[in-house]
Design brief:
heterodimer; A: about 550 residues; mainly alpha; two-stranded antiparallel sheet; 5 strands; about 0% strand; globular; B: 2 domains; 8 helices; about 50% helix
Chain lengths: ~550, ~210
């Protein structure tokens, strides 16, 4: 049984939440940390170089504008690197680069990696040069992750501040996220992966002469530079095609466990940061508890589905669960854990092929994508994913008892409600409309050739849900490298990244202008199990109303067949 | 305007820090501390690279412990990682297609090769393809089922081989992470050494 491993994981995330959350509070509020003597000189040097006035504050709109312009700038740079990669020196030999870097693939990849989606319509080892992987992708894994964390900080400030017209400075948040969080943790984590066996070289692909007298060519590269930060920044795109299933990318159960911790630890800790800065620490812990309930529920269903032997093969006397597409070193346990972690956190770093999962296993991953990444969520972006739902819950709860809705000390007035409603509607509108277009057009259907029936439909729905959630998980049976999917998934990624962040930031800007309300006897308490249940119900019902018909045509139909 | 300038500068400067300085620092420390790992954990035998400890490779002959079936290229292609991506109810997965063995055919082949009856239970990793197509491991049960065949072909003591397999079982890390497994390349390398020892012992006895 893998319950020991599951329990160890959840407990570790919860134990780390308070110390890490306190540290993130210091990073966010520019308070003293133990790293200051080392990093402050670098920080001020960077501000001078970038022309940033650290004391200058931004309105929510300016902040969102800087976030957008930085993202666009990064995407243009990455697009140029990819389009010009044939001119870059270094390996691997051209003979192995069999997938042409077309303009639509380069644009899709550029948008994908600058939105933390890291949806990959290509196979790394047969498409990219080492320098494209490092200067292009490693850099964007850091930068997109840091930009997400910056937006998370700004959103928290918006709720925490009183009568303020500003929510922080994007460039300061970006630089501090990199220097105080992603770079030091990235260095330590990457070294741990190398210790466990992840390679880091620029050697040509290795020619091995096997014991049986044949040859095997083994892809190499600066793998370790990417494989840890892809998880820490909640990006997820792997160096190789098989991503976290590849033994060079994820050689041991320990590297997998470290990777999953890297994904969840910071987003979970941000709930504590939120609680500390709004002076509602218990409300932060409540959000974390709701997340853990959903997380454990997903684990239980997925574990149960994958552990059962294939029913149509019962006459073959096979022992073990559904090991198609899974690695022996991870087994059912670490594969399931990774499915639930990655589908929840905007991180598509799978270690097993989800298209070979049982219908219920796929249903769990797809449902988490469609819930809007509320369990831990993406780095920084996860804060507003869950708080937006909590605001809806607070609104519903207040309606039931006939009071003005309040959350974390702020009134939810008609100004904020407009942005919250738009936020909640964006997810189903983009996912369902794009899925409908794909199903209705020949180009959309042509990509479904490997698996048919409900699974084929699920592959399409899953693709857009994943891209909107900036996740990057994929049911790889879908043939995604063509103009139709490269362009339509790009729309979903952009809407999920900039559309949702802009709405969240504008709402935060509205909250920042308010004074904090003193709780009275009429206030709906937001740190009780009752509110937890209300939030849980709101999350599940909102998704069910939007997506139940689509899910019924996909994994549910496949399960009932 | 000032923000736009900061945007352009930060894209360029921070890309250089994270995509240039960071990998170089990591490379310097990594190569210094872990030269074997950074090079890809390559396994040498008499000066030739026979593979990587971490990357699965094909062993087809009856004298070897055999790995799982693979969907990487034409099987264990180290430049084309990936799985079948076939859904569980896809008939191609269970019944096969032209040039592709389904699970039923793989199970029959495994039974035939290892002289097992139709009633013997088979560990499922022996008849399924991994996610990477480069899985270096098999389950201990899978390895033990292959002992009799390997012992017969190589004319080795079955009990000695059974001991060898048991010695090569890698237990879950820290006692609870992952599953018990047997790395196939390392087991086969040990097999070569065992045979050499047996041969030299026989020579001395004569």
């Amino acid at each position: 049984m893998s319950w020991l491993e599951y329990a160890a994981f959840v407990v570790t995330v919860l134990v780390l939440a308070h110390p890490l959350g306190t540290y993130l509070t210091c990073v966010c509020e520019r308070r003293a940390t133990f790293l200051d003597p080392l990093l402050q000189p670098l920080e001020s040097a960077l501000y001078r170089l970038l022309g940033v006035h650290a004391g200058e504050e931004m309105s929510a709109l300016t902040y969102a504008g800087c976030f957008l312009s930085f993202g666009v700038g990064c995407a243009v740079l990455l697009f140029l690197v990819l389009m010009l990669q044939h001119a870059l020196p270094g390996g691997p030999s051209d003979a192995y680069l069999t997938t042409p870097m077309t303009a639509d693939l380069a644009a899709n990849t550029a948008v994908s990696f600058t939105t933390t989606t890291t949806w990959q319509a290509y196979a790394g080892e047969s498409t990219l040069r080492y320098l494209s992987q490092v200067i292009g992708l490693v850099a964007q894994n850091f930068l997109a992750g840091a930009a997400g964390l910056a937006v998370g900080f700004a959103f928290i400030r918006g709720i925490a501040r009183q009568s303020s017209a500003t929510i922080g400075n994007f460039w300061v948040d970006l630089v501090r996220s990199l220097l105080w969080v992603l770079l030091p943790l990235g260095l330590l984590g990457s070294l741990a992966l190398i210790w466990q066996g992840v390679p880091l070289n620029v050697a040509p692909y290795t020619l091995a002469h096997t014991l049986e007298g044949r040859t095997q060519v083994i892809a190499q590269g600066p793998v370790a530079a990417l494989e840890f930060i892809k998880n820490l920044g909640t990006n997820g795109g792997g160096f190789f095609n098989a991503n976290g299933a590849h033994p060079y990318a994820n050689p041991t159960p320990l590297t997998n466990f470290i990777g999953m911790l890297a994904i969840c630890a910071l987003p979970a800790a941000l709930m504590i940061t939120l609680g500390q800065l709004t002076q509602r620490v218990r409300a932060g812990w409540l959000l974390l508890s709701v997340m853990v309930v959903l997380f454990v529920g997903g684990l239980a269903v997925c574990d149960h589905a994958e552990r059962a032997p294939p029913p149509q093969l019962s006459d073959l006397h096979l022992v073990g669960g559904n090991m198609e597409g899974k690695e022996v070193r991870f087994g059912i346990g670490e594969s399931t854990l990774t499915t639930v972690v990655t589908s929840n956190t905007s991180t598509g770093s799978y270690n097993a092929q989800h298209d070979s999962y049982r219908p219920l296993g796929v249903l769990v991953a797809l449902t988490f994508l469609l819930l809007g990444e509320v369990v831990f969520g993406g780095l920084g972006t996860g804060v507003y994913s869950i708080v937006m739902m909590a605001l809806v819950a607070a609104f519903l709860g207040a309606l039931m008892i006939g009071r003005t809705p309040e959350y974390l000390g702020k009134k939810v007035t008609s100004a904020e409600t407009r942005w919250i409603a738009l936020y909640v509607l964006t997810i189903p509108m983009v996912v369902l409309v794009l899925t409908a277009i794909a199903v209705m057009t020949h180009a959309g259907r042509a990509a479904v050739s490997l698996n048919s029936g409900p699974r084929g439909f699920t592959e399409i729905l899953f693709a857009y849900a994943s891209c909107l959630a900036n996740n990057g998980l994929v049911l790889s049976g879908l043939d995604a490298n063509n103009f139709f999917y490269n362009s339509t998934t790009m729309v979903a990624m952009l809407a999920g990244r900039y559309g949702l962040a802009a709405l969240a930031l504008v709402a935060a800007g509205c909250f920042a202008g308010q004074r904090r309300v003193v709780p009275s006897s009429g206030t709906l308490p937001i740190d009780t199990p009752t509110f937890g249940l209300l939030l849980l119900g709101t999350i599940l019902l909102t998704a069910a109303v939007s997506f139940l018909p689509a899910l019924a045509m996909g994994p549910i139909a496949e399960f009932l067949r | 305007m000032q923000q736009l300038r900061s945007a352009i500068l930060s894209v360029l400067v921070l890309s250089l820090v994270t995509g240039g300085v960071f990998p170089l620092v990591l490379f310097a420390i990594g190569v210094l501390l872990f030269p074997y790992q950074t090079g890809g954990s390559l396994t040498l035998l008499g000066g030739t690279v026979v593979g990587s400890r971490l990357i699965g490779q094909d062993f087809n002959g009856p004298e070897w412990f055999q790995p799982r079936p693979s969907a990487a290229g034409n099987g264990y292609d180290g430049t084309a990682s990936g799985g079948t991506n076939l859904a569980p109810d896809n008939p191609k997965l269970t019944e096969g297609a032209s040039g592709f063995l389904g699970i039923r055919a793989l199970a029959a082949q495994y039974r035939r090769r290892n002289g097992l009856t139709a009633e013997t239970s088979i560990p499922i990793d022996a008849v399924t393809r991994s996610g990477s197509g480069l899985d270096p491991d098999i389950s201990p049960a899978n390895a033990f089922l292959q002992v009799t065949r390997v012992a017969q072909v190589r004319k080795l003591e079955e009990s000695a081989l059974r001991r060898l397999v048991a010695e090569h079982v890698v237990q879950p890390q820290l006692g609870f992470l992952g599953e018990p497994r047997v790395p196939v390349l390392e087991l086969n390398l040990a097999l070569v050494r065992l045979q050499q020892q047996a041969a030299s012992a026989a020579q001395e006895a004569r």
